[in-house]
Automatic annotation (TrEMBL):
Gene it is expressed from: murT
Name of the protein in question: Lipid II isoglutaminyl synthase (glutamine-hydrolyzing) subunit MurT
Subunit: Forms a heterodimer with GatD.
Family of the protein in this entry: Belongs to the MurCDEF family. MurT subfamily.
Organism the protein comes from: Slackia piriformis YIT 12062
Top-rank EC class of the record's enzyme: ligase
Role: The lipid II isoglutaminyl synthase complex catalyzes the formation of alpha-D-isoglutamine in the cell wall lipid II stem peptide. The MurT subunit catalyzes the ATP-dependent amidation of D-glutamate residue of lipid II, converting it to an isoglutamine residue.
Length: 448
């Protein structure tokens, strides 16, 4: 490692130690930020020491999928680096490489560490050329934080250029998403698609992103739609269609413990609800398979043991009360949460939305969410919180839903009772962490 990078790494490691020692929590991106101040290209030197198997990106599902992939790779028995907390800018990847690798099954192992990283879509232009992963995985593309990111074509162009700058990286993408598939058509990289190869008999979202041909602009025809613009599509004008799937989930069905699908002659039990968990688990399977490091039984063990701990689909038990939290930061994410609540027969909803820089200041996307479907729930109790609580309250009013403003999760629990059933807390980026910490503290009190 270059001398300047060595100094930068030492500075970053010191910041990480100080954060954990004195703040008693993860310092987030700070160690990476400080290291990059001292050596802007420190990531290049740090990445040379590891075998970066995959970098994961996409609008929704990055953190969950990255953690699933990391759990699978950990089964291979080699030291592992991963930005599990969702710090997905370049500084977050640097931080993950500065800390000691996970050694769950690798005590005394002298093999080269493996790595998988989550990456913000726009930061792929920095991370991919410097990390040079074996695989780059793209989960989906939806409109998200338009005031920061811009329209989807800007994101597509950024990712395509990042892949062109790393020609040896294989592009592993969601073939059910025409917005992802069009990137594969414009880059020289080897590409492999994954997707759901059966009709799940779902009602298509009444509000969705682009369902137009990425070649000629004509309206796409769908054999079936899973959600948003994801499904089996074909252009009636130019013939462009969903690519052949290298990894195809088949015979998807709902069972008591969650969604189940078949692939390559194996049954995979996700243990979770929500169509997007099929995609997240399928993506983890694809990454495990192409890595050459993970056997199916190891993948299966990792998926069965996976329990969300970062607020995404996380369940808290507080005596006789149950609270599920989840992240939603764009219309598609909220619409999937709407579907989960309807499928599970939920009656208590709490939506927390902020407008910090990480969230995006423009909240006009509230009006693209299909809240009207919740208005059909009898006995619904709805609450809103966060800095944009009033805006969300107005949106729900126009959907025919009366919502009260609350300060936190404890306020929601005080205004409801056990007989109302599970409480669904849905929050965006900056609203979710404090809610998670609050519920974790409450759960600890009940356990003690």
């Amino acid at each position: 490692m270059a001398f300047r990078s060595s100094i930068a790494a030492a500075l970053g490691k010191s910041a990480h130690w100080a954060g954990e020692t004195f703040m008693h929590r993860s310092p987030g991106n700070l160690p990476g930020v400080l290291a990059m101040k001292a050596a802007p290209l420190v990531l290049c030197d740090l990445a040379k020491k590891v075998d970066t198997v995959v970098v994961v990106s996409g609008t929704n599902g990055k953190t969950t999928t990255t953690n699933l992939v990391a759990d699978c790779l950990a089964k291979a028995g080699r030291p592992l680096h991963c930005n599990r907390d969702g710090n997905n800018l370049e500084s977050g990847v640097v931080t993950a490489l500065l800390v000691r690798p996970e050694m769950q099954h690798a005590q005394g192992c002298q093999e080269q560490p493996v790595a998988c990283f989550e990456c913000d879509e726009l930061y792929t232009k920095y991370v991919l050329p410097r990390v040079k992963p074996r695989f780059f995985m793209l989960l989906n593309l939806f409109r998200d934080q338009l005031d920061r990111v811009g329209e989807i074509d800007n994101v597509q162009q950024t990712i395509a250029r990042a892949l062109e700058a790393t020609p040896d990286t294989v592009f592993l993408y969601n073939g059910d998403d025409p917005l992802c598939a069009s990137i594969a058509d414009r880059i020289p990289n080897e590409s492999m698609a994954f997707g759901i190869a059966c009709d799940m008999k779902l009602d298509g979202d009444r509000i969705s992103d682009s369902r137009f041909c990425q070649k000629c602009g004509a309206a796409l025809e769908y054999e079936y739609v899973h959600y948003g613009q994801l499904g089996a599509y074909r252009c009636p004008e130019c013939g462009w269609r969903r690519p052949e799937l290298s990894f195809a989930a088949e015979h998807v069905r709902m069972e008591e413990d969650g969604l189940v699908f078949d692939i390559d002659g194996h049954e995979v039990r996700t243990g979770q609800m929500g169509t997007y968990m099929i995609y997240n688990t399928l993506a983890a399977y694809a990454a495990s398979k192409v890595s050459g490091l993970v056997e199916f039984d190891q993948f299966e063990q990792a998926v069965e043991a996976y329990r969300p701990t970062n607020g995404r689909l996380q369940t808290f038990t507080l005596g006789d009360r149950s609270v599920m939290t989840n992240l939603a930061k764009n219309p598609t994410g909220f619409n999937q949460n709407i579907r989960i609540v309807l499928n599970e027969g939920g009656h208590v909803l709490a939506l927390f939305v902020n407008d910090e820089e990480a969230d995006g200041i423009d909240v006009s996307w509230f009006w693209d969410i299909d809240f009207e479907r919740w208005s059909e729930i009898e006995g619904l109790k709805a609450f809103v919180g966060g800095s944009r609580a009033n805006d969300m309250q107005v949106r729900l009013k126009y959907a025919g839903i009366k919502a009260d403003i609350v300060k936190n999760a404890a306020d929601v629990l005080e205004r409801t009772e056990a007989g109302d059933g599970k409480v669904y807390v849905i929050a965006n980026y900056t609203a979710l962490p404090p809610l998670r910490r609050e519920l974790e503290a409450m759960q600890k009190e009940w356990e003690n």
